[in-house]
Design a protein that fits this description.
elongated; mainly alpha
């Protein structure tokens, strides 16, 4: 949520091209399952990683249409 907002503010200030708009959308994408796969291999809190994947996917369903409209 924070990263796409910062990118969006920078876009409003500097009026960049299409490549920057694509990076705003990329910043708004949910955490990939790669993080969960890595959590299975290394000693990290697997439940926290699973929650991050779930919540970021849930929030992206709501936020991606809004961010797409704003850019």
């Amino acid at each position: 949520l924070l990263l796409p907002t910062l990118f969006l503010l920078a876009a409003r200030l500097f009026h960049p091209g299409e490549a920057f708009k694509v990076s705003i959308l990329e910043a708004a994408m949910p955490v990939g399952l790669t993080a969960f796969s890595l959590a299975q291999e290394y000693p990290v809190d697997k439940e926290a990683v699973a929650a991050a994947v779930f919540l970021s996917t849930l929030f992206s369903i709501l936020l991606l249409p809004i961010i797409t409209t704003l850019i």
